[in-house]
Amino acid sequence: MTRLLTFLIALTMMANLCVAEVTTSPVFGDSMVVQRDMPVHVWGWTQPNIDVHVAMAGHEAETRSDKNGRFDVKLDPLPAGGPHEMVIQADEIRKFKDVLVGEVWVCSGQSNMQWPVGSANAPDLETLTANFPNIRLITVPRVGIQEPQNSFEGAWESCTPTSARDFSAVGYFFGRQLHQTLNVPIGLIDNAWGGSAAEAWVNRSELEKAGKYDELLEKWDTLAKTYDHEAAMNSYRKRLAAWEKNKKGNRPRPPRDQLTGNHRPANIYNGVLHPTIGYTIRGAIWYQGESNSSRAYQYRDLFPLMIKNWRDEWKQGDFPFYWVQLADFQAEVDTPGDSSWAELREAQTMTMSKLPNTGEAVIIELGEASDIHPRNKQDVAKRLARWALANDYGYDIPFRSPTYQSMTIKDGKATLKFDHVGGKLDTFDVREPIGFAIAGEDRKFVNAKAKITGKDTIEVWSEDVKAPVAVRYAWANNPICNVQSSEGLQMTPFRTDEWPGVTINVVK
What we know:
By secondary structure, this protein is of the alpha/beta class. It has 3 domains: 103-205 and 265-400, SGNH hydrolase (Rossmann fold, 3-Layer(aba) Sandwich); 214-260, no CATH class; 404-495, no CATH class. It contains 12 helices and 23 strands. The strands form 5 sheets. Strands 1, 3, 4, 6, 7, 8, 9, 10, 11, 12 and 13 form an 11-stranded mixed β-sheet that branches. β3 and β4 (59-64) form a beta hairpin. α5 packs across α12 (377-391) and α10 (296-314) packs parallel to α11. The longest helix is centred in the middle third of the chain and has 19 residues, at 296-314. The model is unreliable at 4-19 (pLDDT under 50).
């Protein structure tokens, strides 16, 4: 009986060892980069209520897993360098090799962030030279779901011509600039999803608490109750069978399941962002807004809410968050008018005054009228990198575009004053400032003449508006404009009025 009891106990212990596998988010792995000079957060799962020990580069930390087997530790800050080995020991030992310490950035947004190096300007030259063993890349797959996920299919890779080709172009060019300037390892986490809406990147509980998105949430809740994807697929199969008989017209496209897509609130937060939340980072870069342009007024609150939600859950304070303002797109127009894209750009700019440690890269001249995905991602990334290099790494370089400050009106002319002009205000292509419109009390805008009158002032007028009250600049989907700082940073589009725009009542 004693031998049998001993045998059973041994079997039980062996069984416990078999289920004691230490698991982590795939954001931890061989060839990863961990953030330098900051406590390194390491988390994962093992058996409940057991001791866990984490070690790397001579630094150690211990904790005990909770009742669900979750453990969280923080290693003391490490200087840039490597390679090192990270060891996690519970009942099982996990080892991650070839770990570097450097700067880690999240590269997020929709298609213009997802757009790969292989489709940017000069893809052949860019991929040929993408040999940077100390730049490490990881891409989080696109999964839309309403339940928070802890894992994903992905792994870190060294930057090579092959791995860079399909990686975010803006992310890679941004990281390359930092690497070449700082001479430290760079880790880039690409989680962008083309076509995604900002509300899909936010925890649903935060949208509910805000109280401003009830109609939007109700729309999706109703769809979740009524949408039958299998019925939609059956209808598609019938249409496809009919088309295959005669091949007339365009081949039918299979329906997308909207419930697992990139617009449903919280879908991307749960499926893409959640598995990486808490990984120690320096900051995030963002390129998104096209999908929210029809609801630009709503974006004034939604975008800051999203950033705050990320920061709150990352528990790293107000980490740097820099974004790309929407580029110029669609046909140029000669007559001033309303523009949803101009209103979205305005909402993006407003976010800088609502949240600390944020910044906006203005690219109003880098777009393409006929392509929502402009190929020049190199200059986009450089303008983002300026923000990081100046604000986070202490370089004395120009980084912020000129921004509107104030207006005075005298003798039928408006004098505008600007901040962040660098050396001085300047123009490109032609000497005359272009892109301004002016209006009187009737709120009818006309094209205006303009003249730079000082380092940071511009005078604007029109013979057709005797008593001006408002001025706008670059207020169009694809504006014709040319004002910049003497260092070549484009002026931020703006308006002096607060008159209702075309998106003010659009909420879903």
